[in-house]
Design brief:
Helices cover 43% and strands 19% of the residues. It is α/β, with parallel strands linked by helices. It folds into two domains: 169 residues, Anaerobic Ribonucleotide-triphosphate Reductase Large Chain; 222 residues, Alpha-Beta Barrel (Anaerobic Ribonucleotide-triphosphate Reductase Large Chain). Strands 1, 2, 3, 4, 5, 6, 7, 8, 9, 10, 11, 12 and 15 form a 13-stranded mixed β-sheet that branches. Strands 13-14 form a two-stranded antiparallel ribbon. A hairpin with a 3-residue loop joins strand 13 and strand 14. Helix 6 packs parallel to helix 7 and helix 7 crosses helix 14.
Length: 453
């Protein structure tokens, strides 16, 4: 493919001035052959499999990054849901497995390992309950292990027993070590309609339908999209959508090129490219800034949901045109603490938890990196999750919740996690409770549109 000098210079500007990068190269590894009847054997087998499979991942990714001149920010691993791997042990605590995975992640030099997970959207298996009960200790004792729990789907409905359970687990996780200010909860996400091939943390998982080993790539470029939108000042919205679509096309092609080259050098299968506008706290790398470039005075004001819907759809269209291997989540993320402009909108009162919930009906994930007061009750956490799970279920889309209660802090105060996790004001939650509702348990039935074959 021949490129003009103008196109080459445009790509260089994307990297140097607009924060374009490959956000993550994630190796998915099946661990089903690591099952055993005792926890020690499982841990040993898991560590050996991860070390053997991922030993060349980091140097290969770094070599491709240097040779292509493309920044690749994170190197990650996702595994088969750990609840399946540990169930045969009969153990009552899976924290030892989390510790083993953390050691393996450190040994191969990756940033995070996702898949300390369970899928309970239609009901619990014995190992699922053990894994979820292990989360507070496991997440507080590790630094790289991430967990995702599927509690709802369009076909199954919402498992409200699991939603209540997760509210209690998030509360315990945050309060087990108050000095961490809820930080371990950043590695725990609750899903409706969870994709099996998502390369992004904390929801990365190597699903049961995936190959033995695969490479998935996550691309990000909110700064590039914002620059394209700013050039469309005064243009009709359909023309803005076309500009975003063209930009997403270019970004996706770049990401697939990187992913396939890493796969070729490692001799493993290429999975998907996930084009998700995932922000960082860096100036100019914000999804909120893209929305404001469309004409919103501040992210969160009236019109924000409409602007986000346009952005999300245009990104998906551009990615689908560029590659037949688009998967994962793909679209726009709205993680509050990780997007500096979004956090500013919260501090100015423009963006509330209710508006964020409305925005999740049209974005790619859900209530993401939302920091709440430490005295938020487990039942309130569960009620927030229930609302989000129903949005995903009824609309047949992925939704997720990452809530971070901060012990000892109230609404209006702030917390700074540093690095990619960023900083955020603490958002208030409603003072009226929903305890009686969530304690009913049971299941919210799937909607009639879920009955398709």
């Amino acid at each position: 493919m021949w490129l003009s000098s103008e196109e080459i210079l445009e790509t260089l500007r994307m990297f140097e001035e607009q924060h374009l990068d490959v956000r993550t190269v994630t190796m998915g590894i099946s661990l089903f052959d690591c099952c055993a009847t005792d926890m020690r054997s499982v841990c040993e087998r898991v560590v050996r499999k991860v070390l053997r499979s991922a030993e060349k991942l980091v140097p290969t990714v770094e070599a491709v990054s240097e040779e292509f001149g493309i920044p690749i920010v994170n190197k990650r691993v996702s595994i088969s849901p750990a609840a399946y791997i540990a169930a045969s042990t009969g153990a009552k605590d899976y924290t030892p497995l989390a510790l083993a995975l953390d050691r393996a992640a450190e040994a191969v030099g990756i940033d995070y390992l996702g898949g300390f997970s369970a899928q309970v959207h239609k009901g619990y298996k014995d190992g699922d309950r053990v894994l979820i009960d292990s989360l507070p200790e496991a997440l507080n004792a590790t630094s790289r292990v991430c967990s995702s729990i599927s509690v709802a789907s369009t076909r199954a409905g919402v498992n409200m027993d699991a939603v209540l359970h997760m509210g209690q687990v998030i509360h315990r996780t945050a309060h087990l070590r108050p000095e961490l200010q809820g930080g371990p909860c950043a590695r725990l996400v609750t899903f409706c309609n969870q994709p099996e091939d998502n390369p992004f943390i904390a929801g990365a998982m190597h699903g049961t339908g995936e190959a033995e080993i695969s490479i998935n790539v996550g691309i990000s470029g909110p700064g590039v999209v914002a620059a394209a939108v700013r050039q469309m000042r005064g243009a009709p919205l359909q023309e803005v959508a076309e500009a975003i679509k063209r930009t997403a096309f270019k970004i996706t092609r770049m990401g697939e090129l990187v992913g396939r080259e890493v796969s070729r050098r490692l001799g493993v299968r290429f999975g998907i490219v996930d084009l998700s506008l995932a922000p960082t706290p860096a100036a100019g790398d914000s999804v909120a800034e893209v929305l404001e470039a469309m004409g919103l005075e501040k992210c969160g004001t009236h019109g924000t949901t409409a602007a986000l819907a346009l952005l999300n759809d245009a990104v998906k269209r551009g990615g689908a045109m560029a590659s037949s291997s688009v998967g994962g989540l793909s679209g726009a993320f709205i993680p509050v603490s990780e997007d500096a402009e979004m956090a500013r909108s919260v501090s100015m009162g423009a963006l509330t938890i209710d508006k964020l919930e409305a925005m999740t009906a049209v974005c790619s994930v859900g209530l993401d990196m939302v920091v709440v007061p430490g005295d938020t009750t487990p039942e309130t956490l569960s009620a927030i999750m229930a609302d989000e799970m129903v949005i995903g279920m009824v609309n047949n889309k992925t939704t997720a919740v990452r809530l971070l209660p901060v012990p000892g802090k109230r609404a209006g105060e702030s917390v700074d996690y540093g690095g990619l996790l960023g900083a955020s004001p603490i958002l208030p939650v409603h003072r009226f409770g929903a305890r009686e509702f969530v304690l009913r348990g049971g299941r919210i039935p799937s909607p009639i549109q879920g009955l398709t074959n």
